[in-house]
Amino acid sequence: MSARTGTPVADVAATMPGVHAQVLSAAELSVGLRADGVTRADVRSALWPTASPAAPASPATPAAPAAPPPPSLVKTHGPRGTVHLLPTPDLPMWCAALPAIPTGASAFPADVRLTGERAEQVVSAIGDALEGTFLTIDELGEEVVARTGPWAGDLVMPAFQTMWPRWRQVLHRAGQCGALSFGPNRGRKVTYTRPPHFTPLPPEEASRLLVRRYLHAYGPATPQHFARWLAAPPGWARSRYAELAAAGDIEEVRFEGTPAWVVAGDTDFPAGQERDELTRGVRLLPYFDAYVIAAQPRELLFPGAAYQRALAGGQAGNFPVLLVDGVVAGVWHQRRRGRRTTVTVEPLGRLTARQERELAACAERVGDVLEAAAELVIGEVTVGAHA
Fold first, then answer.
1. How high is the pLDDT of residue 53?
2. What pLDDT does 55 receive?
3. How confident is the model over 295-326, as pLDDT tens digits?
4. Exposed, middle or buried, 129 (CB in 10 Å: 0-12/13-18/19+)?
5. Mapping DSSP to helix (H, G, I), strand (E, B) and coil, where does residue 20 land?
6. What phi and psi, each to the nearest 5 degrees, are found at residue 318?
7. How far apart are CA 310 and CA 133, in angstroms?
8. How many helices, marked H, and strands, marked E, lie in the chain?
């Protein structure tokens, strides 16, 4: 679960693969809890690096401002169309594999939805408008309409007791295609920018690579597990598995008595370690952590009472979870006040003295990542899902 001290945050995100980031503080915890010494500042620096210091200048020649280094991590639309942190070097894979996933018919009526041609125009306009700048959603909308036409700005999409302009139908698609990523907030307003340019992989190659990445992190897993993780059609997932199996890139194994797949040869634990050594102990994971979303089957990950307490209608991620020896054994919540945060943990069973000591260290680490002093309280979590 944890990486070495000094591991770059982008490498952590690549290994997971992808960090759910609808709530940025949860994504910062997902990364920071896997790499010793990493804080939320390190994650934000990887996302939005500041300008590097300029070289010393002679008295007669003032220094030109140094260009900021490119981000090693981007916040954009990833698996399931949800916001994720993705490593910049992995964008050629993600931004070829995700658009290649078949989608169903649009839920919008014909007079609202964008045609294929107009959707392409909007995605292109988004990328052009965001080149080298940061724009709020309203500023981006003005630029998109100016580059396409008034039809893009028609208020036709019902959303949160208001109406959104037509062009926003493809906002997530622009992210998945590499035309858009999130910038730092401007006050309370979200901003968007364009990630570094890249050349996408061929879609078939990208899809097969994504299967291997997923299986390396979460195998043994079935095509159905992979499809659920991506929100992809099961038949499409089975075809990708079949292609890789035929090429010898993945192999079938028995997992809890049923067939599942792993990357070919990826059946041993690291040298000198057994499975129990890797899973033993206590950990705290935040909302929508990749482990609870991607690891399957859920019945094994959420045993007994955990299935009712830590899932919301069968959906994982709505509660931060306590892990004991690799499986969910409770829920937790943190409430921040200034430079302090209270971490309340509700175990579903009795913890040993050793486990309580480990839990105290985990709560302290949560505080370190969030740059706050943490106080641990063991008791009932009274807030609901995704509070």
1. 39
2. 43
3. 999 999 999 999 999 998 888 999 999 999 99
4. buried
5. strand
6. -75, -15
7. 41
8. 15, 15
Alpha carbons 359 and 353: distance in angstroms, whole number: 10
| Angstrom distance (rounded) from CA 189 to CA 135 | 10
Mark 304-338 as b/e (b = at least 16 C-beta within 10 Å): eebeebbbeeeebbbbbbbbbebbbbbbbbbeeee
What pLDDT is attached to residue 112? Answer: 87
What is the three-class DSSP state of 136?
Answer: strand
> End-to-end alpha-carbon separation of the chain, Å?
25
Nearest Cα to Cα of residue 221 among 297, 292, 291: 297
Determine the Cα–Cα distance for residues 298 and 11; give it in Å rounded to an integer.
26
**Measuring CA to CA, how many Å separate 208 from each of 96, 236, 237, 288?**
11, 11, 10, 25
Question: What is the sign, positive or negative, of the torsion defined by CA atoms of 300, 304, 309, 314?
Answer: positive
Per-residue model confidence (pLDDT) at position 256? 86
Separation CA 321–CA 289 (nearest Å): 9
Give the E-state strand segments of the chain in sequence order.
19-20, 73-77, 83-87, 135-136, 155-159, 162-165, 181-186, 189-193, 250-255, 258-263, 282-285, 321-324, 327-337, 340-347, 373-378
Q: Are 155 and 161 in contact (CB under 8 A)?
A: no
Is residue 57 pLDDT above 60, yes or no? no
Contact between 83 and 75 (Cβ < 8 Å): yes
Entry pTM: 0.90
Is 361 in contact with 329 (CB distance < 8 Å)?
Answer: no
Is cis: bond before 220, omega within 30 of 0?
A: yes
- Percentages (nearest 5) of helix, strand, coil residues in the chain: 40, 20, 40
Question: CA 248, CA 204: separation in Å to the nearest integer?
Answer: 16
